[in-house]
Amino acid sequence: MDPDVLEDTPIQESLTVARENWRDYRDVFEHGDEIATNPLLANSNKFADFLKDYRVSRMIRQRTHDKFRGTLKDSPQFEEAIHDDTGHSLDKLESELRPDFGTHEPPRRMISVLSKVAAFIIPERFVAWDRYAKKGVNIVLGRRASSPFNAYADYLAAFDEAWNGQAGQQIRDYLSRVGANDAVESEPRFLRRVLDVYLMKCGDRKLKGAG
Fold first, then answer.
1. C-alpha 90: how far from chain center
2. Is the peptide bond before 106 cis (omega within 30 degrees of 0)?
3. Distances (CA, A) of 63 to 40, 58, 68, 72
4. Is residue 3 part of a domain?
5. Is residue 135 included in any domain, yes or no?
6. pTM of the entire structure?
7. Domain extent for 125
8. What is the mean pLDDT, run by run of 10 residues, along the chain of 211 residues?
9. Distance between CA atoms of 64 and 70, rounded to whole angstroms?
């Protein structure tokens, strides 16, 4: 794959998945108010559905799922972390939450679930730490697919490089060409999700709703 050229068909498939995802969680993505009142954190059933839908419940210690939700909802550290555009504060917060909520012994990293929560609450800034997307962003940037990211902040910086470069521009151009279904589809918070899905596809993830 030429790292400078995205193909239209995978972009269309990624757009379809992103639209379905946005439709299902529109109230979360477009909340636009205090973090504590976002339905994802304010509603325990919504949070449980989210963990199930995105298969991240296994990353939180059993019988602590709702406590984890409540901790994020009421945490000044989480609010601070999602207003740090670099992702460094999320890395720091994850290391602080891990002893109480991580699985296994010693507890494993929880950055996948923590970054996914952040990505749903502030989609214009964050994306989830995902092994397929990490591989995809390396491919799009012309790097070795298996090149590691030692921290979430490193991955977020690479995603931003793709977003601000040719890959992101091709996503934006494609939406301009085919037309948006509504105004939000022309905004970075939605378009970044299209790129995120595209990167997962590049990393060989099979996505429900695509194709």
1. 13
2. yes
3. 18, 11, 10, 16
4. no
5. yes
6. 0.92
7. 8-202
8. 68 96 98 95 98 95 97 96 97 97 92 98 97 96 96 98 97 96 96 97 71 35
9. 10
